[in-house]
Structure to design on (268 residues):
């Protein structure tokens, strides 16, 4: 069963980029096609973050597919309605929604057995909240038998945008109706968890300050624990059990069976 990851907006692409970096370092690649490219679609109304992530990936591992980087020419101004309905003057063929769904369709056709989509987005900005909600709805209508899971990042209780609480309310209302599940990360809770565990603070910040990259890394590590299957660890455990054969391994069970047979034979 194959799943597709859809990164929407600035926050979604930053968190997803950290997650793809963790997957690249692991032994298994459950979100990759047979050609090594990720089953990942990146969508944003502006090209800055997407271009930055693609350049970083090109210099390192080259896991992103160039055709899966969908960027617009103008932001959504932290407005849910602009993200959900699109800008005035856009046609259906030129809208971000249509381009994103066409790219998702191509990714679904590349899968041997399509299972569902994981949408990573925020509830604060216009693109993440508005377009993210619309994409979840459209995916549900287009692929009714597949699962749709939303990974949503909610804003701080006191943020920069005066519309963030309206965006969150409208987005969560849509997600409740159309998504099979919602993994909700609250920025205040993430920040509190990092401050109480100093080992999670980035080594690049010796002063102890916490950056957005640290928060994104924490969220991506939590997602990796849910989405990424175990790779080399079970193999090492299995190998140790075979080598030692005496501490809770297969060898101990075989020894017990042998002793039991000898006792039965002596009793006879």
């Amino acid at each position: 069963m194959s799943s597709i990851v859809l990164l929407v907006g600035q926050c979604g692409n930053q968190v997803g980029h950290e997650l793809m970096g963790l997957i690249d370092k692991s032994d298994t690649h459950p979100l990759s096609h047979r050609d090594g490219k990720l089953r990942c679609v990146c969508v944003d109304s502006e090209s800055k973050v997407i271009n930055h992530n693609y350049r970083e990936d090109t210099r390192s591992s080259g896991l992103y597919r160039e055709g899966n980087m969908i960027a617009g020419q103008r932001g959504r101004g932290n407005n849910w309605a602009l993200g959900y309905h699109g800008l005035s003057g856009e046609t259906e063929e030129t809208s971000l929604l249509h381009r994103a769904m066409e790219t998702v369709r191509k990714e679904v056709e590349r899968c041997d057995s399509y299972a569902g989509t994981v949408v990573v987005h925020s509830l604060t900005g216009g693109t993440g909240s508005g377009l993210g909600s619309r994409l979840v709805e459209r995916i549900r209508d287009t692929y009714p038998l597949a699962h749709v899971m939303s990974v949503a990042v909610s804003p701080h209780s006191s943020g920069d945008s005066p519309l963030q609480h309206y965006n969150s309310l409208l987005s969560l209302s849509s997600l409740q109706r159309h998504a099979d599940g919602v993994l909700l990360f609250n920025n205040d809770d993430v920040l509190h968890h990092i401050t109480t565990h100093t080992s999670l603070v980035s080594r690049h910040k010796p002063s102890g300050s916490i950056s957005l990259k640290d928060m994104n890394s924490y969220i991506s590590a939590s997602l990796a624990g849910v989405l990424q299957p175990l790779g080399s660890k079970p193999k090492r455990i299995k190998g140790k059990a075979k080598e030692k054969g005496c501490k809770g391994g297969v060898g101990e069970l075989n020894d017990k069976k042998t002793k039991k047979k000898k006792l039965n034979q002596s009793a006879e």
User: Anything to note?
Assistant: Residues 201 and 208 are 7 Å apart (CA to CA). Strands lie at 2-8, 40-44, 69-71, 114-122, 147-154, 181-186. The first strand starts at residue 2 and ends at 8.
